[in-house]
């Protein structure tokens, strides 16, 4: 056993197989991928990485396994899945989700586990890598501990992200885990733990507009997406190259690419970030009939009216959010199971409130922000 000091969980104990997995190149790569992408441009302390988050997830999953009474073999299987669950993330974590033609990071994770030395390490310890992948995909009886509605992944990242950004939350992880149970392969929370569920999901709802979709951070992400897509389409590197990059490697390659990619990357490093010029609510976007597939045309039309390059205009139509955990199940005192939101007016309100924070936005360089705001309203039919 190896003991690791962690600012969130105090001590994390790694088993011998977990130590071997952490020492693989695929896992060590996570040291160089920030958990929150470019969020440190707004929150300077947000420099934590996927490396420590995955260790934390494994630790939390182990605590959950103890709480629900899993035997040692299943506990180790679930903990390993928690440790490896984010191997497929690209540079800046979720940047790959928006790069044309790049597969989902969960699929990449399962391929890394199957095709590298990780599968051999697991096999030597009597662990079936296919079962690990099934857990990560949520297709296993132990899936709810790693890939569920109130899983170890979410419990760790929410508390960890709040710690490093300095955002206050009232998450009672200990109480939540202590009231967990398994029922027919469903992870349930005993009725006495409902207030802890409410606290967790309220914190998650707060973190979304405050951190995860902060407008300045979003502007930086859109810039990196454009620079990366342009470099790939210009054959400066391939999609296969990109999925193996770390944060620093990507910035270096964008700089080497020259042209638009270099220009955007240089502005990114100097914190010259595209600013939000126009913000539309869900209702406004729906009334205007805006379509994500037409973003390029919207950008070209706005740029044309202003006499600037379309590469300077960013129209962002993100997917509608669904707060993880709203399908969480509560084991009532009478033995029946019901959805948490059916037992809590607070959680029911959070479901509706999440759409209040959603925004369709137009971003542009600060020097033309006001002009873009005016022209965008005309182009987008506001």
Output the keywords.
single chain, 382 residues, alpha+beta, Hypothetical protein af1432, Growth Hormone, Chain: A, 2 domains, 4-stranded mixed beta sheet, 3-stranded antiparallel beta sheet, 20 helices, 10% strand, globular
Notes on the protein architecture:
The termini are far apart. It is built from 20 helices and nine strands. The chain has helices spanning 16-22, 25-28, 50-68, 72-84, 105-115, 117-124, 129-136, 143-147, 152-165, 173-178, 194-212, 215-233, 239-242, 247-257, 259-269, 282-288, 295-306, 340-343, 345-353, 369-379; strands at residues 2-6, 10-14, 180-183, 186-190, 275-280, 314-316, 329-331, 337-339, 360-364. It is α+β, with helices and mostly antiparallel strands and 382 residues long. Helices cover 53% and strands 10% of the residues. It is globular and about 65 Å long. It folds into two domains: 2-213, Orthogonal Bundle (Hypothetical protein af1432); 217-320 and 358-379, Up-down Bundle (Growth Hormone, Chain: A). 40% of the residues are buried. The protein has a four-stranded mixed beta sheet with strand order 3-4-7-8.
Give a quick account of the main beta sheet: strands, pairing sense, barrel closure. 4 strands, mixed
**How far do the termini sit from each other?**
61 Å
The fraction of residues in strands falls at 5-15%
Spatial order of the strands forming the largest sheet: 3-4-7-8
